[in-house]
TrEMBL record:
Source domain of life: Bacteria
Name by which UniProt lists this protein: ABC transporter-like protein
Any one Pfam family match given in the protein's UniProt record, by short name: ABC_tran
Keywords: ATP-binding, Nucleotide-binding, Translocase, Transport
PANTHER family per UniProt: HEMIN IMPORT ATP-BINDING PROTEIN HMUV (PTHR42794:SF1)
Length: 257
């Protein structure tokens, strides 16, 4: 397979505390890569570093090009990012907020064209937010706002999508829907890195998992290998039950150890 993104010896610190301690991983085209690990493992820091939002050491490549060589607009076209708990405090209409995802494709003083309008429509349909496209986002529920923000990230139609806990605050129906959206996005030839806490969703929808622990990459591979009993016991301090699914074993956290 062709690599869409890779990191080499990525390090980052927050408030003078080392959070990432040399993480090297790769994302294939057409892949959903789940970034998992306990609280404080460095998952959000990793995706923020890849998105260019925090200082870091080490190298990041998109399509084998160093990210450092890309200007901000080109980077934004190639890599879309949805932050954890992202929301808008403006009383902007949902459709207009989603349309902001097309800004990397527009030059100064350019107006959106038919291609941009079509991308916005596709993104809103994927995220199931068409029903309230004319409503201010400040009048939407938390779950509805989360789906609008995902639609904005999808509207970029970047080759690589980074999403940080995209199912947080969603009911089970929309959790499954969002994971199906991410799966479909990757199946079309794009690539996704998703920070996830739900191990059952991670094992069901992801091609591979990167397990972080105390800033290190503790395991990297297919879900069945990464979510083995030894890793769950050592890193998560839990036991799990397993069930066969279409893409392999689905892991259900069961008891604290």
């Amino acid at each position: 397979m062709v690599r869409a993104l890779r990191t080499e010896n990525l390090k980052a610190a927050l408030n003078e505390r080392r959070v990432l301690r040399g993480v090297s991983l790769e994302l294939q085209k057409g892949e959903v890569l789940g970034l998992i690990g306990p609280n404080g493992a460095g998952k959000t820091t990793l995706v923020r570093a890849v998105a260019g939002l925090i200082p870091h050491e080490g190298d990041i490549f998109i399509d084998e090009e160093p990210v450092a060589s890309l200007d901000r607009r080109e980077r934004a076209r190639r890599l879309s990012y949805l932050a954890q708990g992202a929301e808008s405090r403006w009383p902007i209409l949902a459709e207009r907020l989603v349309a902001l995802g097309r800004l990397p494709h527009l030059g100064p003083f350019m107006r959106p064209g038919a291609e941009d309008d079509a991308a916005v429509q596709r993104a809103m349909e994927r995220a199931d937010v068409m029903a309230f496209k004319d409503r201010p986002v400040t009048r939407l529920s938390g779950g509805e706002r989360a789906r609008v923000m995902l639609a904005r990230a999808l509207a970029v139609e970047a080759p690589v999508l980074l999403v940080d806990e995209p199912t947080a605050s969603l009911d089970p129906y929309h959790q499954l829907q969002i994971m199906e959206v991410l799966r479909g996005f990757a199946d079309e030839g794009r690539s996704v890195i998703a920070v996830l806490h739900d191990l059952s969703l991670a094992s069901r929808f992801c091609d591979r998992l990167a397990l972080l622990h105390e800033g290190h990459l503790a395991a990297f591979g297919v879900p069945g290998e990464v979510l083995c009993d030894a890793n769950l016991e050592k890193i998560y301090r839990i036991s799990a039950r397993r069930q066969k699914g279409e893409r392999g074993e689905i892991v259900l956290p069961w008891a604290r150890l």
